[in-house]
UniProtKB/TrEMBL annotation:
Contains an N-terminal zinc-binding domain, a central core domain that contains the primase activity, and a C-terminal DnaB-binding domain. Residues 260-342 form the Toprim domain. This is DNA primase. The lineage of its organism: Bacteria, Pseudomonadati, Pseudomonadota, Betaproteobacteria, Burkholderiales. The gene is dnaG. Binds 1 zinc ion per monomer. PROSITE patterns: TOPRIM. It comes from Massilia solisilvae. It catalyses: ssDNA + n NTP = ssDNA/pppN(pN)n-1 hybrid + (n-1) diphosphate.
Length: 598
């Protein structure tokens, strides 16, 4: 787990304007920077980035967050990957308690990654240049209905004939990184005496594969004629793993947001052709079955995922594997559907024959995951017989067990119970689904906690916006918060402790990131503060001190009013009275000193 102190230090070093500016064109507008929101379609800029708050906020769709949150939402990175990416940019190394790799070895690994990334980008540039000089490759792409514009958008290229064409790019053709990146192959004779090195890709249309940061991490190559294999992928490397990457995801990011869904296809050419035909929200797995990691990446980009498969047996098998990969990731606020085209068509050919509107209708009519699951488990079993119904339940059991407790799982259980002449309770008992698998690990939500109002709310807003002010709140100040009631005092105490843990240099961005990790209670308030102009820290400091003094004074006044009915002896009442009045006089002097001209 990454220490919160590291996150705070990272956010203090990173400039969110630089981070967002890599992906969004920003212009100075007053104290902030403005641009078109990357998370929804708009013609007038409503997306602001505050260099003082180190926070972004969209007045149109409400999206907001820190530099870490931006990378997660825009690029689809996980939290750890986003932190590592930002840390690398400012020369920080992310600490990891479970990382036993010595620092020297870690540095060597980072140097290797940079060398491989550089080699792959240089090869990509070479292949793109070669495509412009390859009439046969250009003719093939034109024959598939592709334009030069779409080829350029996806960085497509051509690997020419010849065993060692990359020698013109890499004078040191024997460099180790060429093998490690998968660009070349070392062939050694059976007796081990003669080694030959040659290019992996020859006479193929080249599709560069990019990661979520837009870096080339591998290639897919399609043969022009009837040769085999039809598609050749880069091997597994330190940068590239087929089970975790999706072709076209980098290029499709904005289109996915605009369309509201991602379309998952089976091949490179489907992605490029669909982009050409008006469906740029398509991506593809890389010649391997869909994995749970693929699904996680997709659901970071959108709440709606549609898998498109050919209607033949191979397509059905691929759909079943995709279904199994999806089940652990299913939640009630995400929708996953399955589209099956006629056996003679893939998405490219279907759109060309029937048109974009017809394909759009097919997408709209895609089968929901629940329906596909029930159809799969029913299979060809005879549901009129006890044996057929029992076999259906047998096939459904591992699929339902893979799902977390959710409303959707309950609906599928009900559907299965109806199909197999059972009750939902019988299914849950038979499958051992009655016990939630995750809820018990979470702290129970606080029920009925009153929402902050008045002075309490003002103090909370101030501490969230200016967490460095929390260091001026000592134990007596925090004790005074009991004036608002036990629940409120607990909330304020937790907020103060969290803010104080950031130190005197604590920022709105750092506190927001930390609060988001433990509760959603402050989300609405954070969004409001992000949209407001920056306040004056000095004025805020004075106001907070004044507010605390007022709370203390009100508490003393309340105690004084109740003192004579408190049940204390006359001597105890007299002593406490003198203590209260002394404390009141001290607070008055503090207030006068604060108001005195400096």
């Amino acid at each position: 787990m990454i220490p919160q102190s590291f996150i705070t230090d990272l956010l203090n070093r990173v400039d969110i304007v630089d981070v967002v500016g890599r992906y969004v064109q920003l212009k100075k507008g007053g104290a902030n920077f403005m641009g078109l929101c990357p998370f929804h379609s708009e013609k007038s800029p409503s997306f602001t980035v505050s260099p003082t708050k180190q926070f972004y906020h969209c007045f149109g769709c409400g999206a907001h967050g820190t530099a870490i949150g931006f990378l997660i939402e825009y690029s689809g990175m996980g939290f750890v990957d986003a932190v590592k990416d930002l840390a690398q940019g400012v020369g920080m190394v992310v600490p990891d308690n479970d990382d036993k790799i010595p620092p020297a070895q870690r540095a060597a690994q980072q140097a290797q990654s940079l060398a491989l990334s550089d080699a792959l980008q240089r090869a990509c540039d070479f292949y793109r240049a070669q495509l412009r000089q390859a009439p046969n490759a250009i003719a093939y792409l034109k024959g598939r209905g592709l334009t030069g514009e779409i080829a350029a958008r996806f960085g497509m290229g051509y690997a020419p004939a010849g065993w060692t064409s990359l020698k013109s790019v890499f004078p040191d053709y024997e460099a180790l990184q060429l093998v490690e990146s998968g660009l070349v192959i070392d062939h050694v004779d059976e007796d081990g005496g003669n080694k030959k090195r040659y290019d992996r890709f020859r006479e193929r249309i080249m599709f560069p594969i990019r990661n979520v940061k837009g870096q080339v991490i591998g290639f897919g190559g399609r043969v022009l004629d009837g040769g085999e294999p039809k598609y050749l992928n880069s091997p597994e490397t330190p940068l590239f793993s087929k089970g975790t990457e999706l072709y076209g995801l980098w290029e499709a990011r904005q289109a996915i947001r605009d369309a509201g869904y991602v379309l998952v296809t089976e091949g490179y050419m489907d992605v490029v052709a669909l982009a050409q035909l008006g469906f740029p929200q398509a991506v593809a797995t890389l010649g391997t079955a869909c994995t749970s990691t693929h699904v996680q990446k997709l659901l970071r980009q959108t709440d709606n995922v549609i898998f498109s498969f050919d209607g033949d047996k191979a397509g059905r098998r691929a759909a079943r594997r995709a279904l199994e990969a999806c089940l652990p990731q299913v939640t009630d606020n995400k929708t996953i559907r399955f589209l099956f085209l006629p056996q003679e068509h893939d998405p490219d050919s279907f759109v060309r024959e029937y048109g974009a509107d017809a394909f759009e209708q097919e997408v709209a009519n895609a089968m929901p995951l629940s329906q596909f699951l029930l159809r799969e488990v029913a299979g060809e079993h005879d549901l009129t017989t006890p044996e057929g119904r029992a076999r259906t339940q047998f096939d459904a059991k591992p699929l339902l067990q893979a799902m977390a407790p959710s409303g959707l799982r309950l609906q599928i259980v009900r559907g299965l119970a109806s199909m197999t002449e059972s009750t939902p309770a019988e299914i849950e008992s038979l499958f051992d689904l009655s016990k939630p698998v995750a809820v018990a690990k979470r702290a129970p939500p606080r029920q009925g906690r009153p929402q902050p109002v008045g002075l309490e709310l003002q103090i909370i807003r101030l501490l969230v916006a200016q967490p460095s002010l929390a260091v001026q709140l000592d134990e007596t100040a925090q004790a005074a918060f009991t004036f608002f009631g036990e629940e409120a005092a607990e909330r304020l105490s937790h907020l103060v402790t969290t803010a104080q843990s950031l130190g005197a240099n604590g920022t709105f961005a750092a506190l927001s990131e930390q609060l988001k990790e433990v509760t959603t209670e402050y989300d609405h308030l954070i969004a409001e503060i992000a949209a407001e102009p920056e306040s004056d820290p000095d004025a805020d400091r004075v106001w907070l001190a004044s507010a605390v003094r007022q709370i203390k004074m009100d508490m003393l006044k309340k105690e004084l009013n109740q003192l004579f009915s408190s049940g204390l002896t006359p001597d105890q009442v007299s002593a406490r009275y003198r203590e209260i009045t002394a404390q009141q006089n001290l607070l008055v002097r503090e207030a006068e000193a604060a108001m005195a001209p400096r």
